[in-house]
Amino acid sequence: MAAEGTRYKSAEETAEYYEFRLPYHRKLFRALARRLRLNKRSQVLDLCCGTGRLTAGIAPFVGQAVGIDNSEYMLSKVPEIANAQFIIHDISKAPFYSGQRFNHFLIGAAIQYIPKDTLCEMIEYSLDRQGAVILCHSWWYRSSSWLLSVNRLRQEYSDRSTRHGYVGDREGDTTLKECLMFMKDHIVLKSTFTFTPDWLINNQLSYSTSAKKMIADKANVSAKILRIVSPHINNGKLSAEMVSEAKIFSRIE
Ligand SMILES: C[S@@+](CC[C@H](N)C(=O)[O-])C[C@H]1O[C@@H](n2cnc3c(N)ncnc32)[C@H](O)[C@@H]1O
Question: Is pLDDT above 70 for 28?
Answer without folding.
Answer: yes
